[in-house]
């Protein structure tokens, strides 16, 4: 357990979402690890050292297997994996125990204090041009008044965030269609770039991206949900 205020071990999804949403201009490091992976031993020290060296950095340690919903939401397939984020924009993804790359990335983004270098997921394979992919994604986004891009099906969600998204829409009696992003890797990666949002589920209303699960939950709490989702 760390004594540093800016280094937090995440015990639950709600706390994770709350910490990330507090300051959308802040640079955050999300570090996924497990106790059994040997490279994580070194990376634990590296992450703690970065948090100590940069008090403005928010470092969140996520035990990948214990917090499976968070890991699944960010497509974590191996540990250690480090994500550098500003607000909801993914600045860098570093897989494996590359301490030098992590230090360089954190230093660059903190000292430049700009989001202009935001990187995006890889472009879709050349078998489908970016223009045709974007047109196809926009067609899907307009297939009904409310579209949910999720993992799995509404009656069989394949991650906790998608399950919560479906439950929220059903609780509010919102009619919606869905698209399973696990069924199409081009759409899965392309939508992150199109909407500048690195995670799923994604909520679309009248063809426009309105946010991820945390944003829509805030709309529900503030009373804005009914106005936005009225169709």
TrEMBL record:
Residues 14-107 form the Thioredoxin domain. Signal peptide: none annotated. Residues 146-210 form the Glutaredoxin domain. It comes from the Eukaryota. GO terms for biological process: intracellular iron ion homeostasis. Residues 110-132 are annotated as: Disordered. Keywords: Iron, Iron-sulfur, Metal-binding. GO terms for molecular function: 2 iron, 2 sulfur cluster binding; disulfide oxidoreductase activity; metal ion binding. CDD domains: GRX_PICOT_like (cd03028), TRX_PICOT (cd02984). GO terms for cellular component: cytosol; nucleus. InterPro entries: Glutaredoxin, GRX_PICOT-like, Monothiol_GRX-rel, Thioredoxin-like_sf, Thioredoxin_domain. Monothiol glutaredoxin involved in the biogenesis of iron-sulfur clusters. Binds one iron-sulfur cluster per dimer. The iron-sulfur cluster is bound between subunits, and is complexed by a bound glutathione and a cysteine residue from each subunit. Belongs to the glutaredoxin family. Monothiol subfamily. This is Thioredoxin-like protein. It comes from Suillus discolor.
